[in-house]
Amino acid sequence: MRGSTKVCLSLGLLFALVSLAWMVFLPAIVQRELRESTGFDFRVSVLKVDPFTGQVFVRGLSARNPPGYPSPDFVELRELRADVSVFSWMFSRHVVVNELDVDTERIAIIRRHDGKSNAGEFMAAFSGAGSAAPSAPGSRDYFVRKLHIRLGELSVEDFTGSKSDKKVYKLDIDQSYTNVSDPKQLLVPEVVKTLHSFGLHHDVEQLLPGDFGRALAAAVGGFAQVGAALRGAVQKTGKTLKGSLDKLDQSPKP
After folding, report:
1. What is the dihedral of CA 173, 148, 139, 25, to 10 degrees?
2. In terms of CB atoms within 10 Å, which end of the chain has fewer, N or C?
3. 70 φ, ψ to 5°?
4. Where are the alpha helices (DSSP H) in the chain?
5. What pLDDT digit, counting tens, does each position of 47-104 carry?
6. d(CA 165, CA 167)
7. Which of 158, 181, 204 is the C-terminal boundary of a domain?
8. Is residue 86 classed exposed, middle or buried when 0-12, 13-18 and 19+ CB atoms within 10 A define those classes?
9. Same structural domain for residues 54 and 155?
10. Total number of domains in the chain
11. What is the pLDDT of residues 166-179, one digit of tens each?
């Protein structure tokens, strides 16, 4: 066997072993890093990342609450698929995601007796010291060209009162977006209408602190005010019309 052939076979075998090690150890590495950086306990069934093409595939991801919460459940993710621009990821702080598809089975928001919520802690862990603070120099921002979000169930459990209060909402949100660079862009009228229709308009800002929580509270609250004004206008119009008809009935007949 010629020397060049042996070298090619050796390199091929080495590449195969590295790829296998990457697939085997990557989920454990990611789980550990996320646990250490956020305090939440992550579990991933399947995680595939191709560093050459930017393709990402996740299946069966779950995040459980840190100690101190009365329930461990937080997020259950069915699947996530992403197509990330490798060039932007490696050479720029402006990361471009060509496509992102997120299929979430369940989110459980819990507010403890001290007022802290798991969603608030999670968002703060990813945004640094505080969500109101400006982005630190060198931090990354993201631009998603095509985004598809599915969310099945949302539960909200509040332990701040004398008794716990739990509500479960079967949202079944299925929404597509384009050119997303800010989470507030997710609050399109269809999503806000869905959240309001389930009664999710109280203490939103306390459950989700920061800019997104304020934007969600304002959007759902604004929708509620518009709805109330519209109902009032309809009722007023109906009373006026009824009064006019009554007058016609009472007028002398020729």
Report:
1. 100
2. C
3. -70, -15
4. 3-38, 86-91, 118-127, 189-197, 204-207, 211-250
5. 988 888 999 999 999 999 999 999 999 999 999 999 999 888 888 889 999 999 999 9
6. 7
7. 181
8. middle
9. yes
10. 2
11. 889 899 999 999 99
User: Which residue type does 242 have?
Assistant: K
- DSSP symbol at 252: P
Please enumerate in sequence order all residues whose Cβ is within 8 A of that of 161, keeping only pairs 6 or more positions apart, or say none: none
Query: Does residue 76 sit in the same domain as residue 196?
Result: no
Cβ contacts of residue 190 below 8 Å, gap of 6+?
175
Claim to verify: residue 132 and residue 194 sit in the same structural domain: no
| Chain segment 229-252, per-residue pLDDT in tens | 334 444 544 444 445 445 445 555
Residue 143 located in a structural domain = yes
137 falls within a domain: yes
d(CA 135, CA 142): 12
**What is the spatial distance between Cα 152 and Cα 173, in angstroms, rounded to a whole number?**
6
**Which DSSP state fits 163?**
S
Q: Which domain holds residue 205?
A: 187-254
Sheet holding 55-64, edge to edge: 41-50, 55-64, 73-84, 94-111, 141-158, 165-180
Which pLDDT score, from 0 to 100, does residue 128 have?
56
